[in-house]
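User: Please predict the structure of the protein below. I'd like the answer in structure-token form so I can feed it into my own downstream comparison script.

Assistant: Understood. Taking the following sequence of 456 residues as input:
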Amino acid sequence: MSARPLLLVEDTPSLQLVYASILKSAGHTVHCAGDASTGLSAFKSIQPLVVLLDLTLPDRDGLDLMRDFLAIEPDTAVIVITANGSINKAVAAMRAGAHEFLVKPFDEQRFLNAVENALSTTRGHMAANTPASPVAPLGDFIGHSKPMVDVYAKIRSVARSMATVFITGESGTGKELCAQAVHDISNRGQGPFVPLNCGAIPSELLESEVFGHVKGSFTGAISDKPGAAMAADGGTLFLDEICELNLGLQTKLLRFLETSTIQPVGASRPRKVNVRIVCATNRDPLAAVKQGHFREDLYYRLHVVPIHLPPLRNRDADVIIIAETALKRFAKEEGRELHALDEDVKTLFRTLPWPGNVRQLLNVIRHVVVLNDGPVVTRAMLPIELLQEGESGKDADTSLPVGLSGLIGHSLAEIERLVINETIRHYGGSVPKAARILEVSPSTLYRKMEHWRNTR
């Protein structure tokens, strides 16, 4: 229950009556307003923690009114309400600072869950005595470059909201670290964080992995299995490589987002879950929409608060900080005495394009530590292909450094493994990028890699 009244700004009398009745039945005190002018006066008078705001008002645009609310009290949680045809406007409101949006029609439980989440967030924010510095790195991120400081600030700004976060960035930039950081400092931080790589699971199994299945629903379903959405109940579901979802599953995901219900494969009735969605892709999602590979309505439902992770080449001195931090950690793990980078190596690292970003850098440092000992990392210790890249300026689209003559004497299975591993390595560890070059699905490569690990 709320200590201060909730403010409901809704111009349709019948809807105002219904919403207020639901809230009062749940124990909330509600102050109602039928237009923007009355709503602004009430806001100044009662100072609500939570506002429920219809974006279509007779005397003023609801988005402008919301901006006034947040200018007066930035910590107010505003839940915007919109019709199905105005989702783009609701997305704009989220980007302007709204806490959550509801699309009409919505059910009573969805409505009350949104209010309770908003109240929980505002109370938690008021209880915080010393807010964290916006400059300090979050989670496992390393670095203080301007682009990353902006990312940290964006994460802190969005974490306390229920808004869906859409993370973009090249492969290896740390999208899962970003999702984990959003979860950890949110009011769901004590709940589960469930990551699911949509590109690593065969399409025919993906629905079961996301929504679960009941025993006997298909061949091999020998018991009930909760999917990732159920496992994330009360926490955060991270959908990596979201653009790899097939169109059929995209439709079901959209319904899940709009109703907060899931229906396991073979189940007779849906189940309610309380999950926040964070998703990521290394592709251009809008281009995927234009190409017909990604539903436009799902894009706008997910792409509420975008966070773009900068490539390593645009992070200034962060490349040295990350390399030195990784060097100390890997040297300790491997029992080596390496503890510093030669100045020549630092200069090279700052000038390299790093197509595989942080993942590629970590692979290079691990290579150096495994094959060498200290005390200083020199240019001669670096992988030869990295030196060739630095000297020739060749990019990630050049031909692979595996000569045809080197394949003679190997079986076809060995050649396949060599080509796949070399392609993945060449593209900075990015399986989706390697899959596109090899013209297979990412799930095919993940299955082969898993098989190779199990047959060592």
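That's the full token string. DSSP finds 19 helices and 14 strands in the chain.
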